[in-house]
From TrEMBL:
It comes from Ovis ammon polii. One of its GO terms (cellular component) is Golgi membrane. Disulfide bonds join 269-279. Its EC number is 2.8.2.-. One of its GO terms (molecular function) is [heparan sulfate]-glucosamine 3-sulfotransferase activity. Keywords: Disulfide bond, Glycoprotein, Golgi apparatus, Membrane, Signal-anchor, Transferase, Transmembrane, Transmembrane helix. This is Sulfotransferase. The active site is at 75 (for sulfotransferase activity). 3'-phosphoadenylyl sulfate binds at residues 75-79, 158, 166, 268, 284-288.
Length: 321
């Protein structure tokens, strides 16, 4: 089927357009067009719970456990990555963060509770969820391993100091919204008694990526992880998404057509088809407060050896100072 024919089918909101299957040649697998995944047609009714059991059976839609999880990191670009991967017709995303593996109360509800939090999908599709706290929560690697020891794990990272400041900025905004005061970043990131980096500050600890990854490697081989460059995803999203497609054994379907730069917002928005476009929430891309350059220098010097070890373990070198 030509691109023009596919667009015509999409416009008519027909349900199927053949693409290469995950495990076979072209035409062996079929996936619903993205148009059916956005507040139109039966799939929207499934998500709202308004469809009959007969309809579910007829259309072979199921709630599957995820075959891949975006496990972190916080303020690394997890939401952007999830939404961009959702451009692929073989990917179906969980809309909300489930917090199953990092929340004792949720985890106690069992794996079927978790499954029922997943969106409806076709058996050939990949369900993906993201919960950024998974990466830094000690119990999570073992819990995910017990569910699926061969699951694929996505970690999206940004330059550690920038990520820490972004983390601080989000918390600061929440405090200001509640008319609460908050310390300056410099006072939190630097221990006033020693004048060294404060490793007890959560925003700093989260950015020591190698420490968290080493805990995951006790359960999963490095081949089951893929590192996404969150800084590059902002400026050049397509090459990063193509690497993820390859890691997930998906046929290449995300193209430059699906990504367009919004000058007003300052980052890329998504084009699913000739009908449906989407930009990330306005809370994304917050303006960071000015931080003392000497503190930034001290943080980058502190993170440097951890970054080098992270590159060595993962086999991916990133352009961090």
């Amino acid at each position: 089927m030509s691109s023009l024919e596919c667009l015509f089918v999409a416009y008519r909101l027909q349900p199927i357009c053949p693409i290469e299957g995950r495990f076979g040649a072209r035409g062996q697998a079929e996936f619903p067009l993205r148009a059916l995944q956005f507040k139109r047609g039966l799939l929207h009714e499934f998500r709202k719970g308004n469809s009959s059991k007969e309809q579910v059976h007829l259309h072979d839609l199921v709630q599957q456990l995820p075959k891949a999880i975006i496990i972190g990191v916080r303020k690394g670009g997890t939401r952007a990555l999830l939404e961009m991967l959702n451009l692929h017709p073989a990917v179906v995303k969980a809309s909300q963060e489930i917090h199953f593996f990092d929340n004792d109360e949720n985890y106690a509800k069992g794996i079927e509770w978790y499954r029922k939090k997943m969106p409806f999908s076709y058996p050939q599709q990949i369900t993906i969820e993201k919960s950024p706290a998974y990466f830094i929560t000690e119990e999570v690697p073992e819990r995910i391993y017990k569910m699926n020891s061969s699951i694929k794990l996505l970690i999206i990272v940004r330059e550690p100091t920038t990520r820490a400041i972004s983390d601080y900025t989000q918390v600061l905004e929440g405090k200001e919204r509640k008319n609460k005061t908050y310390y300056k970043f410099e006072k939190l990131a630097i221990d006033p008694n020693t004048c060294e980096v404060n490793t007890k500050y959560k925003a700093v600890r989260t950015s020591i990526y190698t420490k968290h990854l080493e805990r995951w490697l006790k359960y999963f081989p490095i081949e089951q992880f893929h590192i996404v460059d969150g800084d590059r995803l902002i400026t050049e999203p397509l090459p990063e998404l193509q690497l993820v497609e390859k890691f997930l054994n998906l046929p290449p379907r995300i193209s430059q057509y699906n990504l367009y730069f919004n000058a007003t917002r300052g980052f890329y928005c998504l084009r699913f088809n000739i009908i449906f476009n989407k930009c990330l929430a306005g809370s994304k891309g917050r303006i960071h407060p000015e931080v003392d350059p000497s503190v930034i220098t001290k943080l980058r010097k502190f993170f440097h050896p951890f970054n080098q070890k992270f590159y060595q373990i993962t086999g991916r070198t990133l352009n961090w100072p």
